[in-house]
């Protein structure tokens, strides 16, 4: 599991730096995606064919992502 909760502008870089460490079927959670504008991160995740994602309106929002391949 990869949990991202850092400077919001750095979310895409953190994902790209660590995605290779997440095995297929692994979970990636990004915090505060509803309370902050994280559209750059969400668009990056949505644009990748190796990830499936959904935004969960829990607390300040979680992006719940599974690595497919």
What can you tell me about this protein's structure?
- With 69 residues, the chain is an alpha+beta fold.
- It has one domain (2-67): Translation Initiation Factor IF3 (2-Layer Sandwich).
- 23% of the residues lie in helices and 29% in strands.
- It is built from 2 helices and 4 strands.
- It has helices spanning 11-18, 39-46; strands at 2-4, 27-31, 51-56, 62-67.
- It has a 4-stranded mixed sheet with strand order 1-2-4-3, covered by helices on one side.
- A hairpin with a 5-residue loop joins strand 3 and strand 4 (62-67).
- The radius of gyration is 11 Å and the shape is globular.
- It starts with a strand and ends with a strand.
- The relative contact order is 0.26.
Distance between the termini: 15 Å
Structural class: alpha+beta
CATH secondary-structure class: Alpha Beta
The main sheet orders its strands as: 1-2-4-3
- CATH architect. name: 2-Layer Sandwich
| Count of extended strands | 4
Q: What is the general shape?
A: globular
Task: Report a brief summary of the structure.
The protein is of the alpha+beta class and 69 residues long.
